[in-house]
Amino acid sequence: MQTVTEKSAAQLHDYLARLDAPQTYSDESCRQFADIIHRIRVLKAQRNAVVLAHNYQRPEIFEVADFVGDSLELARQATTVDADVIVFCGVHFMAETAKVLNPVKKVLIPDLRAGCSLAESVTADALVERRDALRKTYPDLQIVAYVNTTADVKAVVDVCCTSSNAVKVVNALPTQNILFVPDEHLGAYVQSQTSKNVISWNGNCYVHHQITAENIARVKEALPHAKILVHPECRADVVALADAVLSTSGMVTYAKKSDAEEFVVVTECGLSDRLLLEVPEKKFYKACKLCQYMKMITLEGTLVALEQMKFQVDLDEDVRVGAERSLRRMLELS
Ligand code: 13P
Ligand code: SF4
User: Fold this and answer.
1) Does this chain's domain 4-115+294-308 share its CATH topology with 211-286?
2) Ligand 1 interacting residues, C-beta cut-off 6 A
3) Which of 77, 117, 198, 321 makes an SS bond possible with 191, Cβ 3.0 to 4.6 Å?
């Protein structure tokens, strides 16, 4: 999704009315958003800055973003940025990825608390210890790290992957035995799609982990004609109920191309908001799950980030070089 032209307060209000959230997007709040959006756009030009935003961001953030996408698209986009400053509206590991790929640019994240339960579930030291222990049984073992990891972890693994290329990356490796970190559910999904031996770490995304098969089975019964789109960070019994298992942007493409009119979007709710705004002719049912970390990024915070040039992402050069190696290998393999 590319940047949109600036809307007046009234246009913004009409547009965001599609989300049916009148308290969040009242006349008054849309006036304030329109003012901040204008100030951010002016500052972006002055600072020669671009804003990259993940699909789970608040809809008003999309209004200042130069690019909105999933983790793979954002990593690819980060390799082509022609600007002095990247403001990353997403979580910390995503901003780190942008810095890894753009060492001489300033990369800002508007709120340092924007972490991720998956990235927190594995450290480089614990991973190296587990790898060394497993290699006694599986000498060919390689480590595949989901991008939802810190740069420290990326620096010690063989290759990275995202939700949209995990199976492809695992299948492209020359070895039979894989240690997959840190998402146990994505690891289980990859195992179901490959003949390789996938040993999973035991982390999970706290947002997707809350969604149960009972929840989805009930919705499926009530909406038999709707397509069920499931993110692979969900539990295996939820994935088993899916019509399609997709990354966030994969869901957008699927919904646009599909002949179906109605979809149950089983992932964080920000993606449903993007779909409701971008594909108004179709109907989307939300999973009603919010990622507290993604939602820590606000328009106000983005404005302050650009005004004060904070918070800058900095990496130790050895770590950056190591993380770049596994990210670039992912981009080559996928
Ligand atoms: P994708 O947008 O790459 O599918 O990832 C989802 C996610 O949870 C990112 O934190
Ligand atoms: Fe991490 Fe889950 Fe939030 Fe994505 S949705 S940033 S995986 S906690």
Assistant:
1) yes
2) 55, 70-71, 116, 148, 162-163, 205, 233, 247-248
3) 198
Q: Name the CATH topology of 119-204.
A: Rossmann fold (3.40.50)
Q: Tell me the average pLDDT across 282-305.
A: 96
Instruction: Report the nearest atom of ligand 2 relative to the CA of 91.
Output: 6
Distances (CA, A) of 13 to 22, 134, 221, 310: 9, 56, 35, 30
Contact call for residues 151 and 320 (beta carbons, < 8 A)? yes
For a ligand 1 pocket test, name from 1, 68, 71, 208 the mutation site with the most ligand atoms within 8 angstroms of its C-beta: 71
Q: Does residue 91's CB lie within 6 angstroms of at least one atom of ligand 2?
A: yes
- Per-residue model confidence as pLDDT tens digits over 41-67: 999 999 999 999 999 999 999 999 999
Containing 86, the helix (H) or strand (E) segment is: strand 85-89
Is the distance from the beta carbon of residue 116 to the nearest atom of ligand 2 less than 6 Å?
yes
**CATH code of the region 211-286:** 3.40.50.10800
- Decide: 293 in ligand 2 pocket, CB within 6 A: yes
For domain 4-115+294-308, the question of CATH label 3.40.50.10800 is answered with yes
pTM score over 0.85: yes
CA of 62 to the centre of ligand 2 (A): 18
